[in-house]
Amino acid sequence: MGLPHPPPLGASALPAGTFDGVCVFITGAGTGLGKGIAQEFARLGASIVIASRKPEHLDAGRAAMEELGAPVETVACDIREPDTIAAAFDAAEAAFGLPQVLVNNAAANFPVPAEDMSPNAWRTVVDITLNGTFFVAREFGRRHLDADTPGSIINIGASYAWTGGPGFAHSAAAKAGAKNMVETLAVEWGPYGIQVNGLVPGLIPHEDMTADIQENLSRADDEKDALQPAMRVGTRREFGWAATFLASPYAQFITGHTLVVDGANWQRRAMTNPTVVPIREQMGKEPFSLS
After folding, report:
1. Per-residue pLDDT tens digits for 240-267
2. Which domains does the chain have, with CATH numbers?
3. Would you name the residues annotated as active-site residues?
Protein backbone atom coordinates (compact mmCIF):
# COMPACT_ATOMS: atom_id res chain seq x y z
CA MET A 1 0.00 0.00 0.00
CA GLY A 2 2.66 2.51 1.05
CA LEU A 3 2.16 6.13 2.03
CA PRO A 4 -0.87 7.97 0.64
CA HIS A 5 -0.40 10.23 -2.35
CA PRO A 6 -0.32 13.99 -1.73
CA PRO A 7 -3.12 16.48 -2.39
CA PRO A 8 -3.27 17.79 -5.96
CA LEU A 9 -0.95 20.37 -7.45
CA GLY A 10 -2.03 23.84 -6.34
CA ALA A 11 -3.21 22.76 -2.88
CA SER A 12 -1.53 24.17 0.24
CA ALA A 13 -1.76 23.68 3.99
CA LEU A 14 -0.91 27.34 4.52
CA PRO A 15 -3.49 30.12 4.22
CA ALA A 16 -3.75 31.90 0.89
CA GLY A 17 -1.59 35.02 0.92
CA THR A 18 0.81 33.71 3.59
CA PHE A 19 3.70 35.29 1.69
CA ASP A 20 1.97 38.41 0.39
CA GLY A 21 4.55 41.20 0.31
CA VAL A 22 7.43 38.77 0.92
CA CYS A 23 10.39 38.56 -1.45
CA VAL A 24 11.92 35.07 -1.81
CA PHE A 25 15.41 34.78 -3.31
CA ILE A 26 16.11 31.31 -4.73
CA THR A 27 19.31 30.15 -6.38
CA GLY A 28 18.97 27.67 -9.21
CA ALA A 29 15.20 28.06 -9.38
CA GLY A 30 14.80 27.95 -13.13
CA THR A 31 14.45 24.17 -13.27
CA GLY A 32 14.14 21.08 -11.11
CA LEU A 33 13.43 21.19 -7.39
CA GLY A 34 14.28 24.89 -7.21
CA LYS A 35 11.51 25.71 -9.66
CA GLY A 36 9.11 23.53 -7.68
CA ILE A 37 9.95 25.45 -4.51
CA ALA A 38 9.55 28.80 -6.27
CA GLN A 39 6.15 27.79 -7.60
CA GLU A 40 4.80 26.97 -4.13
CA PHE A 41 6.03 30.28 -2.70
CA ALA A 42 4.50 32.05 -5.70
CA ARG A 43 1.12 30.37 -5.17
CA LEU A 44 1.12 31.81 -1.64
CA GLY A 45 1.70 35.37 -2.80
CA ALA A 46 5.48 35.77 -2.74
CA SER A 47 7.52 37.87 -5.12
CA ILE A 48 10.21 35.60 -6.56
CA VAL A 49 13.82 36.38 -7.43
CA ILE A 50 15.51 33.63 -9.43
CA ALA A 51 19.31 33.59 -9.53
CA SER A 52 21.20 31.42 -12.00
CA ARG A 53 24.28 31.42 -14.23
CA LYS A 54 22.39 30.13 -17.26
CA PRO A 55 20.17 32.45 -19.31
CA GLU A 56 17.97 29.57 -20.46
CA HIS A 57 17.27 28.65 -16.83
CA LEU A 58 16.42 32.24 -15.99
CA ASP A 59 14.01 32.33 -18.92
CA ALA A 60 12.38 29.05 -17.87
CA GLY A 61 11.99 30.23 -14.30
CA ARG A 62 10.48 33.54 -15.34
CA ALA A 63 7.98 31.79 -17.60
CA ALA A 64 6.92 29.45 -14.80
CA MET A 65 6.36 32.32 -12.37
CA GLU A 66 4.52 34.46 -14.91
CA GLU A 67 2.23 31.52 -15.64
CA LEU A 68 1.19 31.70 -11.98
CA GLY A 69 0.80 35.47 -12.12
CA ALA A 70 3.60 35.97 -9.60
CA PRO A 71 5.88 39.03 -9.56
CA VAL A 72 9.30 37.77 -10.68
CA GLU A 73 12.78 39.10 -11.22
CA THR A 74 15.63 37.08 -12.73
CA VAL A 75 19.27 37.86 -11.99
CA ALA A 76 22.42 36.42 -13.50
CA CYS A 77 24.58 35.19 -10.65
CA ASP A 78 27.59 32.93 -10.19
CA ILE A 79 27.43 31.94 -6.54
CA ARG A 80 31.17 31.26 -6.51
CA GLU A 81 31.73 35.02 -6.90
CA PRO A 82 30.74 37.23 -3.95
CA ASP A 83 30.67 40.35 -6.12
CA THR A 84 28.03 38.88 -8.45
CA ILE A 85 26.02 37.77 -5.43
CA ALA A 86 26.04 41.31 -4.05
CA ALA A 87 24.92 42.63 -7.44
CA ALA A 88 22.10 40.06 -7.54
CA PHE A 89 20.85 41.16 -4.12
CA ASP A 90 21.06 44.80 -5.22
CA ALA A 91 18.79 43.93 -8.16
CA ALA A 92 16.41 42.02 -5.89
CA GLU A 93 16.17 44.95 -3.49
CA ALA A 94 15.55 47.36 -6.34
CA ALA A 95 12.69 45.18 -7.58
CA PHE A 96 10.96 44.07 -4.37
CA GLY A 97 12.89 45.28 -1.34
CA LEU A 98 15.25 43.21 0.80
CA PRO A 99 14.47 39.48 0.35
CA GLN A 100 13.02 38.05 3.55
CA VAL A 101 13.55 34.43 2.53
CA LEU A 102 16.62 32.81 0.97
CA VAL A 103 16.61 29.31 -0.49
CA ASN A 104 20.12 28.06 -1.24
CA ASN A 105 19.25 25.50 -3.88
CA ALA A 106 22.04 25.79 -6.48
CA ALA A 107 24.61 22.99 -6.41
CA ALA A 108 26.92 20.97 -8.66
CA ASN A 109 27.17 17.20 -8.82
CA PHE A 110 28.22 14.30 -11.02
CA PRO A 111 29.26 10.70 -10.23
CA VAL A 112 32.92 9.74 -10.22
CA PRO A 113 34.98 7.23 -8.19
CA ALA A 114 37.20 9.09 -5.72
CA GLU A 115 40.39 7.69 -7.25
CA ASP A 116 39.41 9.08 -10.66
CA MET A 117 38.43 12.51 -9.37
CA SER A 118 40.58 15.35 -10.63
CA PRO A 119 41.53 18.26 -8.36
CA ASN A 120 39.46 20.51 -10.60
CA ALA A 121 36.38 18.28 -10.26
CA TRP A 122 36.70 18.37 -6.47
CA ARG A 123 37.21 22.13 -6.39
CA THR A 124 34.32 22.84 -8.76
CA VAL A 125 31.72 20.91 -6.78
CA VAL A 126 32.92 22.14 -3.39
CA ASP A 127 33.21 25.71 -4.67
CA ILE A 128 29.60 25.79 -5.89
CA THR A 129 27.87 23.56 -3.36
CA LEU A 130 29.65 24.61 -0.16
CA ASN A 131 31.42 27.90 -0.77
CA GLY A 132 28.61 29.29 -2.91
CA THR A 133 26.00 28.36 -0.31
CA PHE A 134 27.99 30.19 2.35
CA PHE A 135 28.65 33.25 0.21
CA VAL A 136 24.95 33.69 -0.56
CA ALA A 137 23.92 33.08 3.06
CA ARG A 138 26.56 35.56 4.20
CA GLU A 139 25.28 38.27 1.85
CA PHE A 140 21.70 37.69 3.02
CA GLY A 141 22.72 37.65 6.68
CA ARG A 142 24.88 40.78 6.48
CA ARG A 143 22.08 42.78 4.87
CA HIS A 144 19.56 41.73 7.51
CA LEU A 145 21.99 42.37 10.34
CA ASP A 146 22.61 45.85 8.96
CA ALA A 147 18.88 46.52 8.54
CA ASP A 148 17.99 44.92 11.91
CA THR A 149 15.29 42.81 10.24
CA PRO A 150 14.37 39.12 10.59
CA GLY A 151 14.83 36.60 7.81
CA SER A 152 14.72 32.92 6.95
CA ILE A 153 17.35 30.79 5.19
CA ILE A 154 16.82 27.28 3.82
CA ASN A 155 19.82 25.27 2.61
CA ILE A 156 18.91 22.41 0.30
CA GLY A 157 20.91 19.38 1.40
CA ALA A 158 21.34 15.69 0.72
CA SER A 159 20.99 12.63 2.95
CA TYR A 160 24.53 11.51 2.23
CA ALA A 161 25.65 14.41 4.39
CA TRP A 162 25.00 11.89 7.20
CA THR A 163 25.78 8.60 5.51
CA GLY A 164 28.54 9.38 3.02
CA GLY A 165 28.03 9.10 -0.72
CA PRO A 166 30.09 6.50 -2.59
CA GLY A 167 30.70 7.86 -6.07
CA PHE A 168 29.98 11.39 -4.85
CA ALA A 169 32.81 12.15 -2.41
CA HIS A 170 32.95 15.79 -3.52
CA SER A 171 29.21 16.44 -3.24
CA ALA A 172 28.76 14.46 -0.01
CA ALA A 173 31.56 16.39 1.69
CA ALA A 174 30.15 19.70 0.46
CA LYS A 175 26.60 18.85 1.57
CA ALA A 176 27.88 17.79 4.98
CA GLY A 177 29.45 21.22 5.27
CA ALA A 178 26.20 22.90 4.20
CA LYS A 179 24.31 20.92 6.86
CA ASN A 180 26.80 21.97 9.52
CA MET A 181 26.41 25.55 8.30
CA VAL A 182 22.68 25.31 9.11
CA GLU A 183 23.46 24.39 12.70
CA THR A 184 26.20 26.98 13.12
CA LEU A 185 24.44 29.96 11.56
CA ALA A 186 21.18 29.17 13.38
CA VAL A 187 22.98 29.78 16.67
CA GLU A 188 25.00 32.76 15.48
CA TRP A 189 22.12 34.59 13.84
CA GLY A 190 19.16 33.48 15.95
CA PRO A 191 19.59 36.41 18.36
CA TYR A 192 19.10 38.75 15.40
CA GLY A 193 15.89 37.12 14.18
CA ILE A 194 17.35 35.04 11.36
CA GLN A 195 16.31 31.38 11.30
CA VAL A 196 18.38 28.85 9.33
CA ASN A 197 17.15 25.40 8.36
CA GLY A 198 18.01 22.62 5.95
CA LEU A 199 15.75 20.66 3.61
CA VAL A 200 16.72 17.33 2.06
CA PRO A 201 14.90 15.67 -0.85
CA GLY A 202 14.49 11.99 -1.46
CA LEU A 203 13.82 10.48 -4.86
CA ILE A 204 11.75 13.19 -6.53
CA PRO A 205 12.01 12.84 -10.31
CA HIS A 206 12.86 16.06 -12.13
CA GLU A 207 14.86 17.22 -15.11
CA ASP A 208 17.95 18.34 -13.15
CA MET A 209 18.83 14.92 -11.77
CA THR A 210 22.29 13.70 -12.77
CA ALA A 211 22.42 11.64 -15.94
CA ASP A 212 23.23 8.42 -14.08
CA ILE A 213 20.14 8.75 -11.87
CA GLN A 214 17.93 9.54 -14.85
CA GLU A 215 19.31 6.51 -16.68
CA ASN A 216 18.70 4.26 -13.69
CA LEU A 217 15.16 5.55 -13.36
CA SER A 218 14.43 4.95 -17.02
CA ARG A 219 15.64 1.36 -16.72
CA ALA A 220 13.59 0.73 -13.56
CA ASP A 221 10.52 2.73 -14.54
CA ASP A 222 8.12 0.07 -13.27
CA GLU A 223 10.14 -0.72 -10.14
CA LYS A 224 11.23 2.59 -8.64
CA ASP A 225 8.17 2.92 -6.40
CA ALA A 226 8.76 -0.56 -4.95
CA LEU A 227 12.33 0.45 -4.07
CA GLN A 228 11.09 3.10 -1.61
CA PRO A 229 9.75 2.36 1.91
CA ALA A 230 6.87 4.69 1.06
CA MET A 231 6.16 2.50 -2.02
CA ARG A 232 6.24 5.64 -4.15
CA VAL A 233 8.57 8.44 -5.12
CA GLY A 234 8.05 12.02 -4.01
CA THR A 235 6.65 14.98 -5.91
CA ARG A 236 8.08 18.45 -6.36
CA ARG A 237 5.06 20.03 -4.74
CA GLU A 238 5.64 18.02 -1.53
CA PHE A 239 9.16 19.38 -1.36
CA GLY A 240 7.90 22.89 -2.09
CA TRP A 241 5.28 22.61 0.65
CA ALA A 242 7.99 21.70 3.15
CA ALA A 243 10.02 24.75 2.13
CA THR A 244 7.09 27.13 2.44
CA PHE A 245 6.26 25.75 5.88
CA LEU A 246 9.83 26.19 7.18
CA ALA A 247 9.86 29.83 6.04
CA SER A 248 6.32 30.59 7.20
CA PRO A 249 5.14 32.37 10.36
CA TYR A 250 4.04 28.95 11.66
CA ALA A 251 7.63 27.63 11.88
CA GLN A 252 9.44 30.55 13.44
CA PHE A 253 10.61 28.53 16.46
CA ILE A 254 12.16 25.91 14.18
CA THR A 255 15.79 26.74 13.44
CA GLY A 256 19.01 24.76 13.16
CA HIS A 257 16.99 21.79 11.92
CA THR A 258 17.33 19.76 8.71
CA LEU A 259 14.08 18.25 7.51
CA VAL A 260 14.33 15.16 5.30
CA VAL A 261 11.48 14.73 2.81
CA ASP A 262 12.15 11.26 1.43
CA GLY A 263 9.60 8.76 2.74
CA ALA A 264 12.22 7.28 5.13
CA ASN A 265 14.31 6.03 2.23
CA TRP A 266 17.67 7.04 3.68
CA GLN A 267 16.90 5.25 6.95
CA ARG A 268 16.00 1.87 5.48
CA ARG A 269 17.96 -1.19 6.55
CA ALA A 270 17.76 -4.77 5.32
CA MET A 271 17.92 -7.84 7.56
CA THR A 272 20.33 -9.32 5.03
CA ASN A 273 22.58 -6.90 3.20
CA PRO A 274 22.88 -7.30 -0.56
CA THR A 275 26.19 -8.26 -2.13
CA VAL A 276 28.56 -5.29 -2.31
CA VAL A 277 29.24 -4.10 -5.85
CA PRO A 278 32.18 -1.67 -5.99
CA ILE A 279 31.37 1.76 -7.35
CA ARG A 280 33.68 1.29 -10.33
CA GLU A 281 31.70 -1.78 -11.36
CA GLN A 282 28.39 0.00 -10.84
CA MET A 283 29.61 2.72 -13.21
CA GLY A 284 30.92 0.20 -15.74
CA LYS A 285 34.52 1.34 -15.37
CA GLU A 286 37.64 -0.75 -15.89
CA PRO A 287 39.97 -1.53 -12.93
CA PHE A 288 41.91 1.55 -11.88
CA SER A 289 45.46 1.97 -13.09
CA LEU A 290 47.94 4.82 -12.69
CA SER A 291 49.46 4.06 -16.07
Report:
1. 999 999 999 999 999 999 999 999 999 8
2. 23-282 (3.40.50.720)
3. 160
